[in-house]
Amino acid sequence: MTALLSADDVSKSYGDLVALDGVSLSVREGEVFALIGPNGAGKTTLVRALTGTVEPTAGTVTVFGESPADIDARRLGVLPQSFSPPDRLTARELLTYYAGLYDDPLDPEEVLATVGLRDAGDTWYENLSGGQQRRVCLGSALVNDPDLLFLDEPTTGIDPAGRRTVAERVETLAAGGTTVLLTTHDMAEAEALADRVGLLADGELVAVGTPDELLAEYGGESRLEIDLDAEAETVASMLAESGFDATTTHRGVAVHGIAPTEIGRVVDVLDAEGLSYTALTWREPTLEDVYMTLAGDEEGGIARDDVRSRGAPAVGGDV
Ligand SMILES: Nc1ncnc2c1ncn2[C@@H]1O[C@H](COP(=O)(O)OP(=O)(O)OP(=O)(O)O)[C@@H](O)[C@H]1O
Q1: What angle do CA 281, 282, 286 make, to 5 degrees?
Q2: What is the pLDDT of residues 8-38, one digit of tens each?
Q3: Whether this model's pTM surpasses 0.95
Q4: At the fourth CATH level, which superfamily is domain 3-216?
Q5: Which of 27, 73, 129, 286 has the most CB within a 10 Å radius?
Q6: pLDDT of 238-260, one tens digit each?
């Protein structure tokens, strides 16, 4: 498939601060691409470079094969991280206004319903809740039915049901051929929605791949988590004496490198030693584990230099 959006060795500095450091990335037509990474990693700066609102210090960006400055803005939908529409217009008036900027927009009523605001359509923007305001802003990015949609933290402040609505909308748009690049701190959202995920840290793209590829490479093993009343160190060493790879966690003990069929053997050891536990949970790796491995070094993840020496950033396909 064609690369609809690409960044080639893009860097951006603000004085001495390097916000982006040689980022290369391409997003294919119809793909949903999620950018994840810690606060200050450079996600918004990359979105702004891709949408042409920030001029890279070095490197090249192309959108629809052209420089962002030359493209037809009507083909883009952009939800910035912070966006302040006029306060004293209602949700309906705002979406009608934004629709009026385009030749062939979606019906504002339909967009209002899509973002779950039909009942609040006549409320001034300033009187909407934070999540409702975010929904209006999202609606404004959808109203021109864009070919390429940038969503910078679209679900921040939106409740779980609303997040599901947004996810369903993104899935519908992607199924209809819209290309979506989103940033998020919600790892479950990224894992569920994205065809590929890119992790930015300190301005560098540390890894790119499908969620499955990233999980296989950086997610670690499945594990059995045991919530304990007893002393975790004692339980971990007893399990270790029985040949299990057990480590302590904040809730008890985790047993690594076993198959689900071996859970009974662990329980046998606990029972034989008279150790009580409050819960046993089988845990498959998630994108949050990937994130902690790659970007959680301040919280105990591995150093990114180690990751680079293991062949990052791309774990599968092209970057
Ligand atoms: N206009 C600017 N002037 C100076 N520094 C900036 C500017 N915009 C961003 N930065 C800096 O660039 C770095 C990357 O910021 P950016 O907003 O891209 O991060 P982010 O990954 O989107 O963070 P968050 O998850 O908190 O939204 C930060 O250190 C930020 O302070």
Answers
A1: 110
A2: 999 999 999 999 999 999 999 999 999 999 9
A3: no
A4: P-loop containing nucleotide triphosphate hydrolases (3.40.50.300)
A5: 27
A6: 999 999 999 998 889 999 989 98
45 lines ligand 1 (CB under 6 A): yes
Q: Are 291 and 198 in contact (CB under 8 A)?
A: no
Separation of CA 84 and ligand 1 centre (Å): 19
Overall fold of domain 223-283: Alpha-Beta Plaits (3.30.70)
**Structural element, H or E, at residue 226:** strand 223-228
Helix, strand or coil for residue 12?
A: strand
Cα(264) to centroid(ligand 1), Å? 49
Instruction: Tell me which residue has its CA closest to atom 11 in ligand 1.
Output: 19
- Closest Cα to residue 319, out of 57, 65, 35? 35
Question: Would you say 224 and 280 are in contact if contact means Cβ atoms under 8 Å apart?
Answer: yes
Q: Does residue 48 have its Cβ closer than 6 Å to ligand 1?
A: no
**Which residue, by CA, sits nearest to atom 26 of ligand 1?**
39
d(CA 24, CA 13): 16
Compute the distance from residue 226 Cα to the ligand 1 centre, in Å: 39
